[in-house]
Every structure is written in C-alpha cells, then in structure tokens.
Amino acid sequence: MSSRRRTTCLLLALAAVALVTLPWALFTSRADLTFGPHEAQYRVTADSRLTVDFGPLGELLVPAEDYIPLGLGLHVDIGEIPVSGDDRDEERPAADPDEVKDPGGGSIDALGGDIASYASLFSSPQAQIDQVVEGLSREILTRWALAVCLVTGGLVGLAAFLGSQRLDGIVRALVGKELIGICLVIVLVLTGLGGLVLNRPKPIAADPAFDGTPLAGSQVTGRLGGVIDTALTAVQDFAEDNDAFYDQVLAALRQQWDRRPITGNWTDRGMVPPAGAAGQEDADDSDRAVSTFVFGSDLHCNIGMARVVGEVAGMSGADAYIDGGDITMTGTSAENYCLDVLDDELPDEMPRVIVKGNHDSTETTQHAKTRGWEVLEDSTAEMAGVTFFGAADPRRTVFGSGAQLETELTADQYAQRLRDEACETDFDIMLIHDAAVGAPSLRAGCADYALSGHWHRRVGPETFGSGVRYLSSTTGGALANALTPGPLKMNAELSIIRVDNATKRPIDVQIITVTPEMEVHIDPWVRFPEPLPLVAQPHEDVAGQ
Q1: DSSP string, 273-284
Q2: Most exposed of 353, 438, 507, 519 (fewest Cβ within 10 Å)?
Q3: Residues 6 or more apart whose Cβ sits within 8 Å of residue 281
Q4: Higher-confidence residue: 372 or 132?
Q5: 462: Cβ contacts below 8 Å, ≥ 6 apart
C-alpha cells in the first residue's frame, strides 16, 4: 500500500472515530456548576426538556424545544447549598448610626437568601446560561478529544502490531465491501434513534401554577408539587419587586445624569474636560488630559445595583472599572454568579480590575480571571496608562465562624509585608480592600494614593500619613445584619475618579448615591489633596484605623 493511500485511510479512520465518539462525549459528560444557591451537576439528554432533579422532593420539568436545538435536553441534579456568608465584620467600624436600621433578622436570613438567589436566576438568567454552556462545552470537548486520541491511538497501535503485510491483506479483503459498511452504519444509527424514540418520556403536563411566568408549560412531580405555589410566588414577587425598584432607579439616574456637575478647574493646565468629551474618545492615553475610572466596592451580590454600575460605566465613558472587593457574600462557587452578572452589565470591551475582599474567596478571584478580569494578588495591573498595585485581603469571613486568616501571618504582619512590597514596587495607586491593611504603606510614604472599601462608609479623599486615601461606601447598599440582594435598605454609593495622565495622580472624585427611596444624587467633583512629604506628616490618632 502506498504512503498516500495509508494517509488517506488514516484520515478517514480519524474522521470516522470523531463521528462515532461525538455522541458518546455529548451524552456522558458531566459539569459541576451551580443552580441558584445550590451546587449542581449538569448533563445533556435527548428528551427536549430541562429536568431539574431535587432528589426526594421531586422534579421540575420545563419544555426546552425553543432554546435547546436538535431535540436535546438538559438534566440538572441539585445538590447542597454551600455554607452561607456572614455580613458581620467586627473589625469594620460601624456605619453611621443614622443609616443603621435593625432588620430583626440576624446576620443573614437563610430562606431570604435562597429566595434572592432564585430571584437572581429569574432577573438575569443569561449569566447562568453562559455558565452552563461554557462548563458543558469544556467537558464535552475534553471528553471528545480524549476519546478520539485513545481510539485513534489504539487503531494505530493495532496497525503497527499487525504489520504492513497483514494490514494490506485486511484492506484488500474490505475492498468492494463499502455498501455493506454503509448499511451497517445505517442500521446502527437507526437502532440508536429508535432506542431514543422508544425511551422518550411522556409529554409534560403543564402546571397551571406557572401560567404567566417564565416557566409557563412546566410541570412539577413528587412532594415538590406541594410547595411549588408558595415558593414560586415568593420568588416571583421578590424578582418583580427587585426589577421594579431598579428600573425606577435607572430612570432617576438617567434624568439626573444630564444635570450632573461636569468639571472643575483642578490642574495647572486649566479646565479638565469631562469624561467622554469631544476629542477624548479617539485620543491615545498619552494625548488625553485625563483617564476616567468607575470605582465600586462591597457589592455583596446585589445584582440590582450591578445594573446601576453598568449604566454609570457606559454613560461616563470610563476607561476601566475598579472593584475594591466583597463582590460576593461569602465566596462560595454558587456566588460566582454575582460576579458574572456584574461582568455582563459592564460594557463589553471595558477593562476591569478587582482585589479580593474578606467576603470573597480565591474561588471568586480565580473565576474573575476566567472572565477576563485583572486580579491584584501582590501584583500590579495597568489600566488606561495608570498602574494599580494591590493584594488580597488576608481574611475569609464565613457564617458561623467569623473572620479567619487565610495566611500564616497575622493581619498586622500582613499589612507590614504589604508595606515592604509597596516600597519595592513602582505603581501609581494602591487598591486594597481594607484601608487598615494599606495604612502602613501610606504612613511609610510607599504609596501616594490608596483606594479601599470594607468599612461600608465613605472616608475622604483625605491625607493619611504621607499619602492620600479614599474609602468607598458599599456599592451594594450592604446594611449590617440584613439581606443585601433586593431593594436597598441603606444608601449605595459608586464613585467616578479622574486621573491626570501627565502625573498619574487622581484629580477628583464624583460620588453617585442611590437611596432606598429610589432617588439618585450626583455630588459635585471633590478634589484629591496632594500627598505630604514625610517630614510634614501630622500627628495622627490611629485609634480605629
């Protein structure tokens, strides 16, 4: 047999193997992801339905013809709800007394948290869909590639074992038998299709409880049917209230935006142009007078405020989004959804950077990396020509056990180590979740400017040590001991910061405040003070810092 013919046979065998193993990979792959607040395992089926299996409680059956092609379906095995987070942080100074309300519900109402997670699924399903598509596609392609490699490798090994003479004999014996081969393939395909048809489940008997909802046409089985009316009503009411609240907030934001204070005469070169002004959009970073950043912190999985963040980021023409951490409530894998929703709301091409907060986890930041975020982990990242330096918060706050250190260092030792790293690193602005962790760097003159969150109240911009610090209040409106997702229970704040491209120093900041009364206030620009020489540092009362 000629080498050309051997190559042709090998390619044909490879194509046949790929064709045969694709269905196997498709229907045997499993993806461990989340479903609302639950851990969940997903797999592809051939029944044209979404089956959500709650185990002994029963199943939720949803018709899938309209959004899953080729008669395929999806089976979801619901697992446990990961350990909840605790919004308490004894090391954080309390919010202003006038802003604190007694929710009377402990640190987090577990049932309320589950309802909020399911409501998030209703309000922003695309993030969950993207997660499932990505997770299953990765598993299917991995399994398919492995199967093709193993089977093809086995065939090549068999051919080598048989030798060229025996292989030529087998090939000659098969010459002229193409029709038989085609018939065998047809029989196998028809047998498989027949098995699928014969084993297709009974049609879904639509439950009237779902009429007029996104789950219209669905059915519940088992004991789940006894509680579905109450649970669905609670979730739907929560989702509707949440959407209505933030729809009105966004309308107020757009109305106030056109009347916002535009600019201030803060630089030696004169008037600073507003973000998005004529001549700014197409200019290189080096030619632009300012770079504009939207800065948020402590969102705590409030996906309604994520819509506000995305709107402000778009309307401001910002160059990047900066997040000071605590984007989740406890950092479980199920709460990756919180970051996904914010990521989807931000403009597609906008760079984004995040630093881990104490209510986040390494799982949170690893997931952020897969979504294209820059994560500061004792590292720097350049955004619009400005270099940011930061490190993860050394603690992990988990419900039932409070804040626990994730490093071998105490919090003070960690702050001192961060100071040493800052002194050896060339950067423009420090981004650190807790201002107390960044304080030694400012006192030592190793950081000129620092942005933080964590305290759930705004501080500055003000001189501190030899530098300048600015603390954002909670962007999620995270009131202590209350459920964060949903309509606001305290003011939520978001900041727009402008940086001088010549000096790489922050010029000014404009605060956008959203109230529980669905009002939006946009403050005048506030100038950042200049850093102080070390010899000019005032005596500081460090209590509470």
Answers
A1: PPTT-TTTTTS-
A2: 519
A3: 317
A4: 372
A5: 468, 469, 470, 529
Radius of gyration, CA atoms only, the chain = 29
Complete DSSP assignment for 133-192: HHHHHHHHHHHHHHHHHHHHHHHHHHHHHHHHHHHHHHHHHHTT-HHHHHHHHHHHHHHH
Residue 492 contacts residue 302 (beta carbons within 8 Å): yes
Within 10 A of 462 (CB to CB), how many other CB atoms are there?
11
Per-residue burial over 195-219, b if 16 or more Cβ lie within 10 Å, else e, is eeeeeeeeebeebebbeeeebebbb
Planar angle of CA 155, 10, 20, nearest 5 degrees? 65
Residue pLDDT, tens place only, 59-108: 777 777 776 777 788 888 887 766 544 333 333 333 333 333 333 333 44
In sequence order, which residues have a C-beta less than 8 Å from that of residue 111 and are 6 or more positions away?
A: none
Concatenate the DSSP letters of all residues of 396-450 into one string. EEETTTEEEESSSS-HHHHHHHHHHHHHTS--SEEEEEEHHHHHHHHHTTS-SEE
Residue 80, Cβ density class (10 Å: 0-12 exposed, 13-18 middle, ≥19 buried): exposed
Query: Could you tell me if 294 and 323 are in contact, meaning their C-beta atoms sit under 8 angstroms apart?
Result: no
- Both tokens of 468, joined, read 């300048």
Instruction: Give me the residue label for tokens 């619009």.
Output: 384
Those residues with Cβ within 8 angstroms of residue 295's Cβ, 6 or more apart along the chain or in another chain: 321, 322, 323, 324, 451, 472, 494, 495, 496, 497, 509
**Which residue, 512, 84, 484, 466, is CA-closest to 294?**
512
pTM: 0.64
Cα separation of 106 and 226, whole Å? 29
Query: What are the angstrom distances between the C-alpha of 100 and each of 107, 120, 152, 478, 489?
Result: 14, 25, 66, 10, 9
- 136-163 burial string, b = 16+ CB within 10 Å, else e? beebbeebbeebbeebbeebeeebeeee
The identity of residue 254, as a single letter, is R
Phi-psi region of 423 (alpha: psi -120 to 50; beta: other; left: phi over 0): alpha
Neighbours of 24 (CB within 10 A): 13
For residue 293, with 0-12 CB atoms within 10 Å meaning exposed, 13-18 middle and 19 or more buried, which class applies? buried
Which residues touch 82 (CB under 8 Å, ≥6 apart)?
37, 39, 330, 332, 333, 334
Q: Are the beta carbons of 4 and 142 closer than 8 angstroms?
A: no
> What is the residue type of 292?
T
pLDDT in tens, 353-401: 999 998 898 889 999 999 999 999 999 999 988 999 999 998 888 755 5
Most confident of 14-23, 224-233, 327-336: 327-336
CA dist., res. 390 & res. 501, Å (int): 20
Whether the CB-CB separation of 528 and 509 falls below 8 Å is answered with yes
Q: Report the alpha-carbon distance of residue 106 to residue 108 in Å, rounded.
A: 6
Q: Please state, in angstroms and rounded to a whole number, the distance separating the CA atoms of residues 181 and 387.
A: 64
Residue 41's pLDDT band, with cuts at 50, 70 and 90, is confident
- Residue 279 is encoded by which pair of tokens? 């001549």
